[in-house]
Amino acid sequence: MAAGVEEPVQIFLEQMELGASLFKQLNNLATFKGSDELQLTSMLAVISHWRSKYKEDFAVVHDASSNFLRGKEMWGRITDNNVPPQMHRAGDGTLTEFPLKVVSTTAVNSKDSYSIQFCDVLAGLTTRHFSPRTEGEDRDFMNKVVAASLKHLTYNGIRPSHAFPDEIPPKKKTGPDVVDRMVDIIFGPHNKKT
Question: What are the sequence ranges of the domains in the chain?
């Protein structure tokens, strides 16, 4: 298909084929349980945001119905308080101090927590606000919600942008990049099982 179309569509089809090929090489489809990178990355971004403002320890409470629980072991490694003290540069250039000082992570059923229910409502509102499909009366309503109060909230999220690698495949960087540093945090000597 990629050979039969022109750029920029060709680039996307080539990247999809490369991703599928690498997935097959690096994963066993029979035992693959899914990918939690989006939730894990979002949770890390949230904690990093608050960590930059407060030095106190954090108790994380999240919705028990989320897939975040599947990445519990990875989250435990990232939030391990035995991580050597260091500054970790995120993809947006901000720095986060490790250890993250997360003392607990608790899953709570939203039926039992008004706070989790409120977070669900906010997530739904922001999703609706950023959707290009929100039009007409729905857009008018969202504009009123934003003007009334939603504009005062800070948010962290992943949205499409026009930033693309300048060559395909992207050029490798030298030295420890963000991924290398995160791997050190997750799988460093402090996390070796004896």
Answer: 1-32, 33-157+174-191
